[in-house]
Specification:
about 20% strand; six-stranded parallel β-sheet; TIM Barrel; alpha/beta
Length: about 300
């Protein structure tokens, strides 16, 4: 995967990366991926964190948090689809199986508009480390079945709920025919994951420009999303302009709302203006690192 390390020169700076495939745009060291999280919770469960901040007593379903989360498939995803269409950006929609089951027209609409529908577990309350290998295999299979039926093609990528895999998740994904696995936080560039069931592309997933920690967990205003991105991009030359991946990540139930959607638009415009960046997504990066010829979208 890739043709070995190479050095790219930009404005007198030597930028040395790891394994850079031939399809990576020359002179643009920062690959900025766009991802949308389209999340759902199983019957009787709700998000563990919501806009009210204070959790309810254990065992009491938080219907406020659940209603807040339902905004994603009911309204937020459609708004984001329209904005991505308007800007000509293609994203990966990491979709919970339970969302596809409840809103079967939604994955079809996402795929019809040229975006990739990837898997995000059956529900956000089902964490792979808590499952037996057999139960995790069944959870993956259930996701594949519903996303294939609703989106019209099998998902090629996977991101676990909470971004937390088990010790056998990569192996089970390879067995199920997945192409990339995005639960990776230990690298700047995609890498090869070898398992007894075959190889996957390990996709690095960065959290710096992500509405969940910035807005929900730490209480920043939505504009902090764009400010954080701007600080990274403007400071990139000071780091020696290394070749790396950076994620722009929004949740349909969080930044699918008007204020967050405006911050996303500002962020996409910022990336497009900067000569160091190119817009892409995990599906396109997996294709580059898997030997296919698909290219960037911006």
């Amino acid at each position: 995967m890739g043709d070995g390390p190479r050095t790219v020169r930009l404005a007198g700076l030597a930028m040395t990366g790891g394994e850079i495939p031939a399809g990576w745009p020359v002179g643009r060291p920062l690959a900025v991926s766009v991802s949308v999280m389209l999340e759902g919770w199983a019957e009787g469960s709700a998000p563990g964190i919501g806009p009210m901040g204070n959790p309810l007593k254990p065992g009491v379903p938080d219907l406020q948090a659940l209603s807040w989360a339902e905004y994603g498939p009911k309204a937020g995803a459609r708004r984001l689809l329209d904005l991505l269409d308007r800007t000509g950006v293609r994203a990966v929609f990491y979709t919970s199986g339970v969302v596809a089951e409840r809103y079967p027209a939604l994955p079809a609409a996402i795929a019809a508009r040229g975006h990739a529908v990837a898997a995000h577990g059956w529900s956000q309350g089902t964490l792979p480390p808590y499952l037996t290998p057999e139960a995790e295999r069944d959870d993956i299979s259930r996701c594949v079945d519903v996303l294939t039926r609703t989106a019209g093609h099998a998902p090629q990528g996977w991101l676990s709920p909470r971004c937390t895999p088990s010790a056998v998740t990569s192996q089970l994904l390879a067995r199920a025919g997945f192409r990339w696995h995005a639960d990776m936080f230990d690298a700047d560039l995609p890498c090869r994951i070898d398992t007894p069931e075959g190889a996957l592309v390990g996709m690095p997933f960065t959290m710096e420009v992500n509405d969940m920690p910035l807005y929900v967990r730490y209480g920043n205003e939505p504009d902090a999303f764009t400010r954080t991105l701007a600080r990274i991009v403007e400071g990139w030359p000071a780091l020696g302009s290394p070749v790396a991946c950076l994620d722009i990540t929004v949740h349909a139930h969080v930044f699918g709302r008007p204020y967050g959607a405006i911050a996303l638009l500002d962020s996409l415009a910022l990336v497009r203006r900067d000569a160091l960046c190119w817009l892409t997504n995990h599906a396109e990066l997996a294709a580059l690192y898997g030997g296919a010829t698909e290219g960037p979208n911006g």
